Amino acid sequence: MGGSMMEHATINDTTVPGIFSRPLPVPPQLHGKADARSVLHYALRAGGGHSKLVDGVRTLTWGYNGALLGPTLRVPRGKPLQMWIANGLGVSTTLHWHGAQVPGEVDGGPHNLITPGAVWTPALTLDQPAGTLWYHPHPDTYTGPQVYAGLAGFLLIDDGEDERLGLPHTYGVDDIPLAIQDRRLDGSGRLVYMNRMPDMMGMKGDRFLVNGVEQPYAQVPAGWLRLRLLNGSNARIYNLAFADDREFHVIAGDAGLLEQPVALRSLLLAPAERAEILVDLRLEQGRSLVLRSDSSAAVPDLYRMPMAADAYDRGRFDLLQLRVGSPSGQTTHLPARLIAAPTLLADGPKHDFTLNGMMGMMGMMGGGFGGGRTADGPGGMSMGIGGRDLFAIDGHYMRMDVIDLKTPLGRTAHWRVRNSSTMAHPFHVHGTSFLIRSRNGNPPSAHESGWKDVVLVRRGETVELLAPFHHRADAKHPYMYHCHILEHEDNGMMGQFTVT
Questions:
Q1: Range list of β-strands (E), 145-247
Q2: Minimal CA–CA distance to 417: which of 465, 467, 350?
Q3: Which CDD domains does the record associate with it (predicted)?
Q4: 485 vs 427: CA distance, rounded Å
């Protein structure tokens, strides 16, 4: 396997809380360039470079239009878009518009492969509510290592609703995107991927990054602060809270605003889930706040098997320091109501999914760790992830030439997802935003009542979803449903469906 298992000889020990020595990078925005037909053009290039994930250490990484991560794409609702996606890597990749309601042929899943040196030019229109979406690679069996190498970015849909409501909306000032990720580095600062047996349960690191920097600080104005939170980690579940246990308000989930703000003191965020929160800093000028993950206070039994856990699943670690300055002069507030509550009528087919666990486990362990699928990542990082023997859906592993499910266009499907495995799984569906109808027969929590595209299904739990499908996906370019623990997805915990 690539990457050394030696101790962190040249890197500061992250067990010491509160480094906060470097400013938070805010991704630049791309608004698109309009042509004569008012089509907005966006260009991204996947390539490599050096980054300082940890202060004083240079690490080889991948990114879009730079060495790490990518720009924030600002997209107006309902406008035609032309994307130009160039592959400057030495391996094939794809680019998936996570959370976007687009036809299967431009979804960016495993069937939209971009070979080295090629350019993919999908045309699409995002006619859906404003929300915090993201983009990332989605090649079959290699999604985990490519995202881990640094390929990801925000995709924000605008419809003017946040301005009308008086929400903070000055990008990078009082409206800040935060991509939260964990990574593991060797003593030379190289990314280490899948070099320990517990990594089979999902790749977790011991360095905690926000927008690609370990424990940064952000200068923010006194007033209402909007944070767009993305769990961009491969496998780690975060339980986000402030160190002083202060209250904050969730105003949006994965794919749009909630009916009304929800006051919380902690927020569980699974891989690929997003949330927008408002924090009241009106009386905090001159003070500092710390955003952290307190996994010790998280819902128990998220990881039942010891191999699924590590020391940081049971502990607490700091992520970001907010340094509050003077007011910005912007007039913003927390509205009592946001949007009308979404409703759906289940007029489409029903289907039950079962998330299966530990299938063929002994066979995998006997066959050796990190089986045959390998490729070179940045700095020689191995991209081998093992065979398809761990987790499955309905007893099947992902097969590129098999359609597992068909659903009719223009109908709302009623899906039930049951988790019979030994750990929690974030279940993601392409091509739609869905509503959670129930968890084990009970209504969802208030902060989960809006539009979503990822739902965390805990061990032994059954979650009911209502999923409308407004775009086609044929057998040549089907949609995916899968676990968004990326190593599970790459190992085959994924299926394909058409919408016709």
A1: 153-158, 175-183, 207-210, 213-214, 217-220, 224-231, 238-242
A2: 465
A3: CuRO_1_CueO_FtsP (cd04232), CuRO_2_CueO_FtsP (cd13867), CuRO_3_CueO_FtsP (cd13890)
A4: 9
Instruction: Give the tens place of pLDDT for each residue, 418-474.
Output: 999 989 999 999 999 999 999 999 999 999 999 999 999 999 999 999 999 999 999
Q: Of 378, 361, 344, 382, nearest to 464 (Cα)?
A: 344
Question: Does the predicted TM-score (pTM) go above 0.90?
Answer: yes
The verdict on domain 175-324 having CATH code 2.60.40.420 is yes
Please give the share of the chain, as a percent, with pLDDT higher than 70: 88
Question: Predicted confidence band at 382 (pLDDT cuts at 50, 70, 90)?
Answer: confident
Domain spanning 350-499, CATH class = mainly beta
Specify whether the CB–CB gap between 147 and 136 falls below 8 A. Answer: yes
CATH code matching the domain that covers 29-158, chosen among 3.40.395.10, 2.60.40.420, 3.20.20.70, 3.40.50.1820? 2.60.40.420
Distance (Å, rounded) from C-alpha 119 to C-alpha 110? 16
Q: Which residue has the tokens 């266009």?
A: 409
Count the neighbouring beta carbons within 10 Å of the beta carbon of residue 469.
24
